[in-house]
Structures are given as C-alpha cells and as structure tokens.
Amino acid sequence: MEVHAHTHAHGKKNWKTYFWEFLMLFLAVFCGFLAENQREHMVEHQREKKFIKSLISDLEVDTARLNNILLQRHRRATMLDSFVTLLNRQDAAAYGRYLYYFNSFATRGPAFRYTPVDGTMQQLKNAGNLRLIRKSVINDSIISYDVHTRVLAWGSEDEEEIMDTYRNIAEGIFDGRVLMSMRDDDNNVSMADYDPPIRITDDAVFRLNYRLHMLIAFNKTLRRDVRVQLQKAENLLTLLKKEYFLE
Questions:
Q1: What is the tens place of the pLDDT at every residue in 150-183?
Q2: pTM, whole model, 2 decimals?
Q3: Which one, 148, 217, 222, 247, has least CB within 10 Å?
C-alpha cells in the first residue's frame, strides 16, 4: 500500500502583507510605549502635587515662626538699647534689678533662633525629586528660599559666638546666685524685687560695651535677614498656591 504525503500549499506572502504585519506590530509596541509613558507622567504629577502640598504646610509653619522671631528681635533691640543706657549711667548700681534682667536676655538665643521645618525640602533635594517640579520659576523660588535659610543659620552661629564672648566678661560683673534665683523651674526669667549688688568697673563696662555693640549689630542684621526670609516664604506660598490651584 502506498502512502502519499499530502502537502498543503500556502499562498506566498507578498511585501504588502509583510508591511502591514510589521506596521501592526510597530503600532502595538508604540501605543504600549505611549500608554506607559503617560502612566509615568501621571504618577510623577501626583507625586509632584503631593510634595507641593507638603511644602506649603511646612512654609505655613515657617512663616508663623519667622513672624514670631521678628517680634522677638524687635523686643531684643529695645532691651539691648536700654541695657547699654543703664550700664553707662554714673549711678548704674542703683538699677541693679534691670541690669540683671537685661543681662539674662542678652544671651537668650533660643527665642529667636530659626530652625525651618525642612522635611519636605530635604526630600526634594536629597532624593533628586526637584526634577518633579516642572516649572522653572517654582524651582528657582524653592532653591532661593533654601539658600537663604542657610544664610540665616550661618548668621545665628556667628551670633552665638558673640554671646559666648559676652558671657566671659559678664561672669565677672553679675552674681550667678542672683541670676539662678531669677529663673523658675521652666527657665522663665523674672525681675528681682530689689537691686542686687553688681561689680561695675570702668574696664568691665568698657569691654562689655563692645560685646553689647556686637550683639546689637548682629540683631539688626539678623532681623533684616528674617524679614527677607519671611518675604521669600510668603512669595513662595503665593506662587505655589496659584500655580497648583490650591487657594
């Protein structure tokens, strides 16, 4: 018995068939690429908006703190001026309670030290997330605000050094026991109800005047820098809310 193999003839494909198959495959891959690219853009846009909302929250805390620091530095300016005036009176010892009180605040830095809420800023900078911010004007404003934050920090460090040199002189003028009695358990300062003794000499006053001059100068400089930082914070807040429709 003979077995005959049957072959099925297939029509030969022409170039048009190959072209359309290639085109369909290309379109499928290209559309998949576009869909994935669009999805990534949506995810990045959502991340961008999340960062912006968090940054706005941080800036609102910063502006409240900066306004408070500005108020404290205005008060500090008045207090330091009064301190210098009384210290240089011929009868300065008669104003002991005021001199002790002003001295207690001359080196009281935490009340006007600026520490920004920068969790969001650090995430934007350290993880390369600033690239998510698409508009250059916003990116530039964020960077400018961050740079000036460091300017304030450097100025505060210099002020702390002047406070240290002030303390080295003040310890020979003011009685530490009196200063301790003026503070409560929460370290709040109250004025004594009498005029404590004070060691006033021409040399001590001369040296203390220079340190007070430096503290007054730094207070003026940092008060100016705080105003600049506050303006930058308010401008950035306005810009972010406007550009991201978060009014």
A1: 888 888 888 999 999 999 999 999 999 999 999 9
A2: 0.79
A3: 247
